[in-house]
């Protein structure tokens, strides 16, 4: 196992993941891998509360709306209040993020389905809380399109990222629930990222693009867009992203994880109670105008929660099985730590 961790660490080093800090409001530096995690000192005037210093993986940190509470927790001093010095590391996708956590970083947030996929492969990964509870994929088109509802896409083309992706799953599921048969009534076209999807839609190559916040709101501000449907209108029970840690990390740093959850929870509370302040922080962190950040957070305000329900877990597992990514019943009690989640 030690050799495996060393190999994974070298892979991470070569990828040179971007480290971001909400306090700085942007990129700190291009790191050559993750820094070592160590207990923080107790001399910061918080009564000697045990602390922690280290890195935390955040999938889609600079590009997806679920990351907002992490930026807020740092910028508003919620980490400091808990005697935490956490530096966020951006990972591009869910499985990469899970591998990053398991390779030595120890904690982070990732898409929820990949946690069960990784556990099926034998990785020691645990869910300790929820983050974003909405199905995050939206389907949009140009403002002057004659398409106005999901029913209007009969005979049309809809962009998805790639086969087996979340965008493909939600496109297929929502179309079926609307009475349309993917591949027969509607052609799904693999077009890559959300930004690539919008590019080909705006050029008329496809009729509808897949997207997600805050990109959708950025597009609206720059050129206008029409939301045809949101996956969350059809999928009401879901865990899009969750908090994770390795089993060893939980054993060694349980109190630090609880402190981290409290800090993130305060970030979520700010989004609920002071959207203007939350938008200012989030917009500065990912370098978008505060009014765009405000719209993005307003569209997602009701979907931040640390609580993970059985219905959400069941929905995620069912989606993974439907896509062939989860091939046997997972040991949910071993993966989801109910004392945390």
3D architecture notes:
With 341 residues, this protein is α/β, with parallel strands linked by helices. It has 14 helices and 12 strands. The strands form 3 sheets. The chain has a 7-stranded mixed sheet. The protein has a 3-stranded antiparallel sheet with strand order 10-7-11. It is globular, with a radius of gyration of 20 Å. 49% of the residues are buried.
CATH architecture of the largest domain: 3-Layer(aba) Sandwich
Compute the number of helices: 14
Radius of gyration (Å): 20 Å
Helix content class: 40-55%
> Per CATH, what is the topology of the largest domain?
D-Maltodextrin-Binding Protein, domain 2
Whole-number count of domains: 2
Question: Going across the major beta sheet, what is the strand order?
Answer: 2-1-4-3-5-12-6
The CATH C-level name of the largest domain is Alpha Beta
Q: Based on helices, strands and strand pairing, what is the structural class?
A: alpha/beta
Tell me what portion of residues adopts beta-strand conformation: 15-25%
At the fourth level of CATH, the homologous superfamily of the largest domain is Periplasmic binding protein-like II
User: How many β-strand runs?
Assistant: 12
Fill in the keyword field for this structure.
three-stranded antiparallel sheet, D-Maltodextrin-Binding Protein, domain 2, disordered N terminus, 341 residues, globular
Write the topology of this structure.
Elements: H1 2-15, E1 18-21, E2 26-30, E3 52-59, H2 68-75, H3 78-81, E4 84-91, H4 94-105, E5 107-111, H5 112-120, E6 125-132, E7 138-141, E8 157-160, H6 166-177, E9 187-190, H7 194-202, E10 209-211, H8 215-222, E11 226-230, E12 241-246, H9 247-252, H10 254-273, H11 275-286, H12 290-300, H13 310-322, H14 332-335
Parallel strand pairs: 3-4, 3-5, 8-9
Antiparallel strand pairs: 1-2, 1-4, 5-12, 6-12, 7-10, 7-11
């Amino acid at each position: 196992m030690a050799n495996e961790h060393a190999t994974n660490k070298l892979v991470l080093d070569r990828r040179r993941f971007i480290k971001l800090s909400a306090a700085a409001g942007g990129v700190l530096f291009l790191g050559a891998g993750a820094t070592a995690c160590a207990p923080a000192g107790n001399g910061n005037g918080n009564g000697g509360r045990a602390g922690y210093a280290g890195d935390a993986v955040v999938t889609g940190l600079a590009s997806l709306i679920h990351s907002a509470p992490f930026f807020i927790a740092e910028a508003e001093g919620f980490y400091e209040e808990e005697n935490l010095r956490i530096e966020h590391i951006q990972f591009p996708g869910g499985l990469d993020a899970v591998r990053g956590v398991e390779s030595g970083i120890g904690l982070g947030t990732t898409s929820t389905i990949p946690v069960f996929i990784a556990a099926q492969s034998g990785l020691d990964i645990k869910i300790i809380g929820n983050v974003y509870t909405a199905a995050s994929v939206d389907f949009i088109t140009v403002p002057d399109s004659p398409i106005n509802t999901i029913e209007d896409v009969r005979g049309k083309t809809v962009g998805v990222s790639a086969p087996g992706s979340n965008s493909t799953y939600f496109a297929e599921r929502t179309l079926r629930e609307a009475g349309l048969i993917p591949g027969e009534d509607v052609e799904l076209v693999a077009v890559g990222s959300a930004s690539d999807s919008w590019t080909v839609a705006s050029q008329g190559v496809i009729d509808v693009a897949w997207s997600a916040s805050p990109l959708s709101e950025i597009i609206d501000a720059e050129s206008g867009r029409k939301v045809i449907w949101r996956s969350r209108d059809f999928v009401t029970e879901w865990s899009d992203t969750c908090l994770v840690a390795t089993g060893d990390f939980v054993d060694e740093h349980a109190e630090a994880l609880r402190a981290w959850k409290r800090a993130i929870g305060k970030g979520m509370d700010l989004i609920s109670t002071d959207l203007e302040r939350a938008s200012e922080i989030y917009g500065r962190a990912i370098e978008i105008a505060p009014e765009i950040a405000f719209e993005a957070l307003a569209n997602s305000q009701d979907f931040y929660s640390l609580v993970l329900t059985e219905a959400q877990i069941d929905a995620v597992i069912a989606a993974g099985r439907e896509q062939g990514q989860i091939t046997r019943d997972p040991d949910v009690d071993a993966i989801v730590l109910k004392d945390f989640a």
